[in-house]
Amino acid sequence: MNNRELADQFKLIADLLEIKGEVVYKVLAYRKVADSLNNLTQDVNELWKEGRLEEIPGVGKAIAEKIDELLSTGKLEFLERLKTEVPPSLTELLQVPDVGPRKAALFWKELGITDLAGLEAAAREGKLRSLPGMGEKSEARILAGLEALARRGDRIPIGEAWPLAQELLAFLRKLPGVVAAEPAGSLRRMRSTVGDIDLLVASKNPGPVMAAFTGRKDVVRVLASGETKSSVEFANGLRSQIWIHPPERFGTALVYATGSKDHNVRLRELALTMGLSLSEHSFQRKDGSEILCDNEEKVYETLGLQWIPPELREDHGEVQAAKAGKLPRLITHDDLISDLQTHSKWSDGKLSILEMAKAARERGFKLLAITDHTPSLGVTGGVKIEDLARQRAEIDAAQEELGDSIRILQGAEVEIRADGRLDYPDEVLAKLDIVLASVHTSLRQPRDQVTARMIAAIRNPHVDIIAHPTGRLFPNREGADLDLEAVFSEAKKHGVALEINAHPARLDLDDTNARRAMELGILLTINSDAHSPADFDLAFFGVAIARRAWVTPEAVINAWPVEKQLAWLKNRGG
DNA sequence: GCCGTTTTCGGCCCGACTGTTTTCAGTCG
């Protein structure tokens, strides 16, 4: 059982206990452990073997025993018994907006509803409205929520949400009386997926701004509209909400709206120790007087903290680090001066090498690796060995034309075949300037097999980088079941770099794994995987993942001076 | 169920909005 699978068990326990009506703090305790496990930078099995389970945040004696039972036997008696008391399928209902644990319990106990289909049928038959605390409007909201859920599915990739948010922000910023408009929520924290689009507006006159927002043509439903907060749904099922606060309170409001919830709780606890109560409006002293903050820096300063970049605000140690003045200098998009994974017409890219190099140069890159696919990945039209010399000639010609404004490398994204062999023989790899190795197929191999395959690639002396290590694709393809600890240990030993692939459908390594790699001192690389000029800009999302992983520029090859990048490649003997 | 600059018990952040209610529960972030 891996970290995520274990976390799922505890999330299920939390949901079931909540529906059962258990005291809320017990539920929160289980939920916190699920979150801790999901964000753990080590394999929980290692901690378990070393008897260090209680070092995991939120894990005490009782939960440590449950983890022990789950990892030893694969089952948990406590959970099995719980499942006989509350049907597990009831947790489906919690996905529906406006349905929480109390209503789920109500529907189950009064109407025998145990899943989404049952809820929808009952709502359509008008059976919900007569329940205590329910009415026609509540029933209609639940039906609307069910429809939105069906349309939208789950969370959406940040690559889709970000452009939509920019469009909404541009709209808001043009409205009269709007002083500022910023992204908030998981969007601003740059999580790889977001549930809805949160936006914060500064204005002294919120009424007309709210009206303009909720009155947009693409809004199909207004879910809430108040003085400080409104929430709407778009035709595709996506939801967005805005808060509007006066400019002099923008700082506290932005901290609040950005979250995460756990980060906010941490800040509020800290405020209380200083005799202050922190809300989205202000700090309040015990005598009722307020401290207003028009920007975030003032909020953190009042708490005796360094300003914390939004990407770190997950209650993963950032508040403690800020208190000690030890926040890392996070990498930025501007730090990147190379892109080490891109594709040209030689495989599945859209442009010639010269066109790609010009596009890279326009974006300020000084170094570009052309890393086309290899033949076994048939759909990409991989470069045959006999064509590599002609590709080299094209690179030389492009280099000639562009002079020293940008340096172009001949590389390859070499397929790691199902049996662990690479798609080019060593003598061919030896002639390339840079070699990335990656898996695209046979991702469902058993853990041992797929891990061995990856390790074999890392041990090949010509391989410089493992690209998108797990092979995951949003939203539907799970990554390979890799033993990442083993992969990390081997990468460290052989000095092979691991990629944070910036394509929003990949974002692989993810933030949690990238943080673990960083802690282990493994080199990282952030690449766009560009197949067309616009794709170069996707590096932005890769940087976001790196920032969420506390990554500094020193750890990222692409942020090094060109000569250092080239020297690293040369010294690897590739 | 966890946890400790109020420490081994008694707390555990703060508020907006809605709907069904005549003062509040439920949900959400």
What's this model, at a glance?
The chain has 574 residues and is α/β, with parallel strands linked by helices. Helix content is 43%, strand content 14%. The protein is globular, with a radius of gyration of 26 Å.
Descriptive key words:
574 residues; alpha/beta; 5-stranded mixed β-sheet; 43% helix
Report the major sheet.
7 strands, parallel
Q: Give the tally of β-strands.
A: 17
Number of helices: 23
Oligomer: single chain
Distance between the termini: 37 Å
Output the strand order for the largest sheet: 11-12-13-14-15-16-17
Structure characterization notes:
The chain is an alpha/beta fold and 574 residues long. Helices cover 43% and strands 14% of the residues. It is built from 23 helices and 17 strands. The strands form four sheets. A seven-stranded parallel β-sheet has the order 11-12-13-14-15-16-17, with helices on one face. Strand 15, helix 20 and strand 16 form a beta-alpha-beta unit. It is globular. The protein starts with a helix and ends with a helix. The chain binds one DNA strand of 29 nucleotides through helix 2, helix 4, helix 6, helix 8 and strand 5.
Spell out the blueprint of helices and strands:
Blueprint: H1 3-20, H2 24-38, H3 44-49, H4 61-73, H5 77-85, H6 101-111, H7 116-124, H8 136-152, E1 156-157, H9 158-174, E2 178-184, H10 185-188, E3 193-194, E4 197-203, H11 206-214, E5 219-225, E6 229-234, E7 239-245, H12 250-258, H13 261-273, E8 276-278, E9 283-285, E10 290-291, H14 296-302, H15 318-323, E11 338-342, H16 353-362, E12 367-373, H17 388-402, E13 407-415, H18 426-429, E14 434-438, H19 447-459, E15 465-466, H20 484-494, E16 497-501, H21 511-519, E17 524-527, H22 539-548, H23 562-571
Parallel strand pairs: 4-7, 11-12, 12-13, 13-14, 14-15, 15-16, 16-17
Antiparallel strand pairs: 1-3, 2-4, 5-6, 6-7, 8-9, 9-10
The chain binds one DNA strand of 29 nucleotides through helix 2, helix 4, helix 6, helix 8 and strand 5.
